[in-house]
Specification:
The complex is a heterodimer of chains A (112) and B (115).
Chain A: E1 3-6, E2 11-14, E3 19-26, E4 32-38, E5 45-51, E6 56-59, E7 62-67, E8 72-77, E9 86-93, E10 101-102, E11 106-111
Parallel strand pairs in A: 2-11
Antiparallel strand pairs in A: 1-3, 3-8, 4-5, 4-9, 6-7, 7-8, 9-10, 9-11
Chain B: E1 4-7, E2 10-13, E3 19-25, E4 31-37, E5 43-50, E6 53-57, E7 64-70, E8 73-78, E9 87-94, E10 105-106, E11 110-114
The chains are: A mainly beta (112), B mainly beta (115).
């Protein structure tokens, strides 16, 4: 069955450092991968998308890579700030499909 | 103006009761979804509607019945509530699934507790 794995342990980093979160998947060939941010008591908020034919995508302090051979995406937040503390979810889907599959997320804590 | 609003935010009810959760989006999106987030934080799709038509109905007990009176609304009715139904339920909407660049827009969730 399709499976998405994100590090279940929280990631603690110091302000100003780069946070790197991992998303691995099996039994799936997604057309795209999305990253979301979720704060406690709130719904996920879409951050960015990377397609299967793209190696890297950037948006402000965010960078995402997508390796379809390793079946892995890395999500980087550079110059991290305490306000970046949240849970980050990856999600996979097919173009034209109506079902996006989500990982359980990784909790990020950025210390001042 | 809230893009995807769902009510109520909290719902505490006894086993065996019937309850409804309402969802409305003012984004003009064609597709709406119900997701369930369990205690392990996995978001699992339950239903997807496109222009009021049911597209996805995952392995969900038939005690759960979605209804879409128009493409801006998708409600969830749950009959004979069980303890295992306790979770956070999220409504979401999206533009044409063929353009996933904009992602899903989620509501703030309804925390359902069955006692």
């Amino acid at each position: 069955s399709q499976k998405i794995e994100q590090n279940s342990e929280a990631l603690n980093i110091q302000e100003g450092k780069t946070a790197t979160l991992t998303c691995n998947y099996t039994n799936y060939s997604p057309a795209y991968l999305q990253w979301y941010r979720q704060d406690p008591g709130r719904g996920p908020v879409f951050l960015l998308l990377i397609r299967e034919n793209e190696k890297e995508k950037r948006k402000e302090r965010l960078k995402v890579t997508f390796d379809t051979t390793l079946k892995q995406s890395l999500f980087h937040i550079t110059a991290s700030q305490p306000a970046d503390s949240a849970t980050y979810l990856c999600a996979l889907g097919h173009t034209g499909g109506f079902k996006t599959i989500f990982g359980a997320g990784t909790r990020l804590f950025v210390k001042a | 103006d809230t893009a995807v609003s769902q009510t109520p935010k909290y719902l505490v009810t006894q086993m065996g009761n019937d309850k409804s959760i309402k969802c409305e989006q003012n984004l003009g999106h064609d597709t709406m979804y119900w997701y369930k987030q369990d205690s392990k934080k996995f978001l699992k799709i339950m239903f997807s509607y496109n222009n009021k038509e049911l597209i996805i109905n995952e392995t969900v007990p038939n005690r759960f019945s979605p209804k879409s009176p128009d493409k801006a609304h998708l409600n969830l009715h749950i009959n004979s509530l069980e303890l295992g139904d306790s979770a956070v339920y999220f409504c979401a909407s999206s533009q044409d699934p063929g353009t996933p660049e904009y992602g899903y827009t989620f509501g703030s969730g309804t925390r359902l507790t069955v006692v």
